[in-house]
Recover the amino acids of this structure.
């Protein structure tokens, strides 16, 4: 029997006795309280967490779907797209791992210690071959742009060849790092989701309300909000190719569809520049979730009460089932020999 992925039974039991809410806090998975007994994911309201039984159920998945529901281990595998062997150590990183008391529902607590890189993240300042190759060859991003971000420390490569997108405090002169997200460069051997074939996770203790960001110039008038770091960079490059005033924007990933990041970013813009941005572009994916989010967000008070123009930046998808800004960029650059739905679907495995 191979012992490569062997995990002692006592560690599995300890992981099972860890609160799902504690795990969410450790890995910056935002949840919303529904009742005293129930929470749901902020960016997936079909996934409900029963804090009394410490079980989850994703009602958006068909009955019989793998990892539709279960305990904290299944939850970790489902939300982070990792294997059983990888889920256990991630769960055991939780501050209160193994301390579950089913008679008393756990309470969410804010991270007061500030952001520090997890011990398993070993960064390299000099090595970035895999990161550069993946982002330019696989994702079609401009080499000069990526090299600039590598030089500035916005992007780094970890010791195991993954890409680290550093989250810096937007608009602040200190540019303190407040969190980070990981994108794998090698396909997972046994992906749990055919549309997510690469590792993707947010670093534990990353500060809520932040995400990967950069700006075209010192004081841009406008802000673009995209679903991921790669989509934000892709939108920037699309604006360069169209000569569409790319430098007059800040570009912010909302790490999914988290409105809290939009609000926080606008508040920080106001704090730094003593005014609100002139225009906000919601550059979400062209799919059901992206379009629904745009319709829901466009009339929020943060925009209407501060006279901020909101524009749709959802890409045209033509006849395709789904389209994001990296797909659009790759199509523009001729990365697909035939612009077929099948090829677009294949690329979805690369989406961050």
């Amino acid at each position: 029997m191979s012992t490569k992925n062997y995990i002692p039974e006592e560690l599995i039991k300890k992981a099972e006795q860890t609160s799902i809410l504690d795990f969410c806090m450790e890995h910056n998975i935002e949840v919303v309280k529904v009742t005293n007994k129930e929470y749901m994911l902020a960016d997936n309201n079909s996934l409900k967490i029963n804090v009394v039984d410490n079980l989850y159920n994703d009602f958006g998945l068909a009955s019989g779907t793998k990892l539709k529901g279960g305990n904290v281990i299944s939850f970790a595998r489902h939300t982070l797209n990792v294997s059983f062997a990888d889920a256990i150590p991630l769960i055991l990183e939780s501050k209160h791992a193994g301390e579950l008391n089913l008679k008393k529902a756990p309470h969410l607590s804010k991270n007061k210690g500030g952001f520090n890189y997890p011990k398993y993240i070993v960064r390299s300042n000099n090595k970035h071959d895999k990161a550069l190759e993946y982002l330019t060859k696989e994702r079609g991003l401009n080499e000069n742009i990526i090299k600039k971000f590598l030089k500035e420390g916005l992007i780094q490569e970890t010791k195991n060849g993954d890409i680290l997108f550093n989250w810096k405090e937007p608009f602040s002169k200190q540019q303190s790092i407040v969190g980070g997200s990981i994108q794998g460069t090698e396909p997972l051997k046994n992906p749990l989701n055919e549309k997510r074939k690469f590792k993707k996770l947010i670093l534990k203790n990353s500060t809520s309300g932040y995400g990967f960001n950069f700006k075209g110039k010192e004081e841009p008038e406008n802000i673009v909000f995209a679903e991921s770091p790669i989509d934000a960079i892709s939108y920037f490059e699309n604006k360069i190719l169209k000569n569409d005033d790319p430098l007059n924007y800040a570009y912010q990933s909302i790490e999914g569809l988290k409105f809290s990041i939009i609000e926080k970013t606008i508040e920080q813009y106001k704090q730094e520049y003593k005014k609100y941005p002139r225009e906000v572009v919601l550059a979400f994916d062209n799919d059901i979730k992206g379009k629904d989010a745009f319709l829901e967000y466009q009339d929020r008070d943060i925009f209407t009460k501060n006279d901020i123009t909101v524009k749709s930046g959802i890409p045209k998808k033509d006849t395709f089932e789904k389209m994001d800004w990296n797909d659009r960029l790759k199509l523009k650059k001729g990365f697909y020999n035939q612009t077929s739905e099948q090829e677009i679907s294949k690329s979805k495995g690369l989406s961050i």
